[in-house]
Amino acid sequence: MEFLTATTSHAALGIIASFPLGERQTSYVPLEEARGRILASDIIALEAIPPFNRSLVDGYAVKAKDTYGARESTPALLIARGEIRAGEFTQQSVGDGEAIYVATGAMLPEATDGVVMQEHVRRSDADLEVTRSLRRGENICFAGEDVHEGQIVLEGGRELTPFDIGVLAALGITRVPVYGRPKIGLISSGDEVVPVCEAPSPGKIRDINTHTVSNVLAAKGCEVILAGIARDALKEIEEKLLMVRESDMILLSGGSSKGQMDLVTTAIEGLGGTLLFHGLNIKPGKPTIFASLWGRPVFGLPGHPVSCAMVALRFVLPMVQRLRGQTPGSGEWTIRGKLVTNVPSSYGIEEYVRATIEREEGSTKVRPIFAKSSVISTLSKADGYFVVPEGKEGLEAGVEVEVFPLA
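^ thats the sequence. predicted structure below, dont judge the formating
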């Protein structure tokens, strides 16, 4: 493959999406450990939620027709017949012109189809005056109204949220089928890189990429295996790759740009791997590598911290979704807003511009952050990034853009 032959982002994402992956392992985890995991199969309700008609308020269960036309000046007159508390089973029924007091959450007696709130009732002994007309189903949750038996309540491939866990709890599901967490091997490379615990001597820099990328991956439910720093020596890079060969994916930052001591591609090919692309027509992040090694996807990420992070967000995370068993594109969201200033760009290059979001007077404004790809602090300040398409020489102030959140 020609060195640094720029591939379009669209073509690169297509290559990444078509990379063959083995079948994901699944297991059952306790309900309390399922949040954030990817559901491995559809969840089908074996029972209805709620299993009985229940009241949503404190009040009187009635036949709605008995209240039609009721108002303050001409109330409907009903007779109270006992009460039902939350948690009680009842086989009571009501006749025409009758009502039974029910607490919030209580099972409703047969034949009732509405609940009058206490605020709309005047009571004297067993006599009730209902001062408001009620419609059928008002203040009631009917049996199966939330979930009916046989319904697919959660589809496989979704990331389980706290509210999904609530649905599972309601169905009495205590063990949840999920996909295994992807194991990602992470290597940093370069003679200039030192661990963060060391004070860098002149010409050296601390290892930013390991900590940025590993936390991006951990936040997405991955298990990250840190292989440490490889010096610019072929043998050392190969040894680091071999250390993480059992990972589901391997990431190596640094040493992938033209003119440097580029040994990454040599190491990958020397171990039997195949380069799938080397170089993207994007900014930042042009010197990106994607390869196959031992049947696993391998990314060579740029060394500059912002370039490394942006490539991880834009290109690595789609592969992470696949490795997790997640439905492609699920859980993604963006913010739309208008640029507050012009954004220059180079024609033929897809550019990723960091930005902050400002909301005022009912509008959303996007303020670009202009900085070099080595300035990591801009990512800490940014709310997200937007894309300047390769076919544009920039974007004008006032244009609406789509902002991809960083978190």
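The chain has a mean pLDDT of 94.
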